Amino acid sequence: MSEKLYPVSIEVNGKARSAQVPARLSLVDFLREELRLTGTHVGCEHGICGACSVMLDGEPVRSCLMFAVQADGHHLTTVEGLAQADGSLSILQDSFCEAHGLQCGYCTPGMLIASQALLNETPNPSEAQIRDAIGGNLCRCTGYRQIVDAVQLAASRLAAEKK
Amino acid sequence: MKSAAFEYVRASSLAEVCAALHDSADETKLIAGGQSLVPMMAMRLTRPARLIDINEIDALKLITVDHNFVRTGACTRQCVIARDAALGAALPLLKQALEWVGHVQTRNRGTVGGSLVHADPAAEMPLVAQILGAQMVLRSHAGTRTVGAAEFFEGPLATATRPDECLEEIHWPVWAEQRTGSAFTEISRRHGDFALVAAAAQIAVDENGVCTRVSFGLAGGGYIPMAFPQLAARLVGGTLDDEAVQSVVNDAASEFDPGGDLHASPEYRRHLAVVLAARMLRAAYDDARKAS
Predict the structure, then answer these.
(1) How far apart are CA B195 and CA B156, in angstroms?
(2) Best interface-test mutation with A: which of B40, B103, B191 has the largest number of A CBs within 10 A?
(3) Torsion sign across C-alpha atoms B215, B220, B221, B222
(4) So where are chain A's domains?
(5) Does B206 contact A at CB distance below 8 Å?
(6) Among B154, B144, B156, B118, which Cα is nearest to B32's?
(7) Interchain pair B2, A65: CB under 8 A
(8) Is B104's CB within 8 Å of A117's CB?
(9) Which of A114, A126, B102, B204 has its CA 20 to 30 A from that of A49?
(10) Which superfamily is assigned to B180-290 in CATH?
(11) Pairwise CB contact (< 8 Å): A61 & B55
């Protein structure tokens, strides 16, 4: 017997996407396997590592802790949605490259979503605010120092751009 | 897909939830933020046959603040409560505790009501509910009833909520005393992880610094989060001298009787309970004396 499917319509990175999904399909699996948006990473799959962070209606959440069907009618931004319209890196993404805010890259999409959400609310964050914002994201490579540097660099570049 | 298969119902009203539960509560779970339930489903520690989603019910997302009570809805998110200035002024302890709950991403989705009905013995919200004597309003097809925190928490992941009931809202008593102070702390492996031990206190003092009302509690490693009203009463009428505090927190740690696991031994947890409870009583007292 095949599993019951539920209709979902979600706006992902500004584009309307619709599908029929089983209720138990997690949002992150939906993004990666149905929509082929593989920028969002699957890490621990039980809400500890933060690699799967996406923005739900503008706020960062863990996409492994939601079922795709629950996102029906909502807006999502994934790491793919942070890039500029022409596909080039955003200032935050470029700052991660510049400041060596990544090594293996596994945590990076979650780090970018968490930091972008912070910068959206707090354009000039303190180091403590940055560390709090990425406190739910594990990185096993960088020791976090360069990630904090990258967010600070992005904040100063964004401020300079506004002037 | 990590969870076992289930039927999904997105409820649009509490009446719909109660009707569905009345119809059949068998193997049905309600999902609010899902920050504890979904990992348990992913690990197949629980495999409900039906999930009723209450996330889209706006009536369950209220916050109202008045002189006697703060009311929060069952599905009011932790981040919304943490940001609410009027609530923070009326219930500083709840706000202080939320700083220890999970991380930004989990607080954006997690709900205070969900934390209460999930009733993890190491969780912060149940401890605050115990210390303040919160009242849980439970609704079923038959009507509503109100259960106080002292009767609500029955054991690890077990509450007085019946299978056909849904938490509707929580009433948090606001202390009328002007000179009221509070404090919350915990020790965990990583900030935002489950507490090895959490301790919190709320104290009111008169103009001479004499305690007129004291409440404190402990969570983590025990059976349920606990407040100690009889022990706290011993501190009323005094100025929180070291000897009185030490005797009260020693008795509290004995009553709390934390167990051990691979994260911490019973001895270490008991030590933390004594130290943190004493520290929070003093911090709440200092906070009360500063308040005007």
Answers:
(1) 14
(2) B103
(3) positive
(4) 5-82, 91-162
(5) no
(6) B118
(7) no
(8) yes
(9) A126
(10) CO dehydrogenase flavoprotein, C-terminal domain (3.30.390.50)
(11) no
Instruction: Provide the ipTM.
Output: 0.94
Beta-carbon contacts of A143 under 8 Å, excluding residues fewer than 6 positions away, are none
Q: Please name the fold of domain B7-53.
A: 3.30.43
CB contact under 8 A, A135 and B104: yes
CATH superfamily for domain A5-82: Beta-grasp domain (3.10.20.30)
pLDDT, tens digit only, all 292 positions of chain B:
789 999 999 999 999 999 999 998 889 999 999 999 999 999 999 999 999 999 999 999 999 999 999 999 999 999 999 999 999 999 999 999 999 999 999 999 999 999 999 999 999 999 999 999 999 999 999 999 999 999 999 999 999 999 999 999 999 999 999 999 999 999 998 888 889 999 999 999 999 999 999 999 999 988 999 999 999 999 999 999 999 999 999 999 999 999 999 999 999 999 999 999 999 999 999 999 998 6
pTM of the model: 0.95
Residues of B within 8 A of A132 (CB-CB) are 104
Task: Give the DSSP H or E segment for B64.
Answer: strand B63-65
Q: Which of B8, B102, B108 has the CB atom closest to A69's CB atom?
A: B8
Topology (CATH level 3) of domain B59-173: 3.30.465
Q: Domains of chain B: which residue ranges?
A: 7-53, 59-173, 180-290
* Angle CA B54–B58–B63, to nearest 5: 110
Chain B CB within 8 Å of residue A29 CB: yes
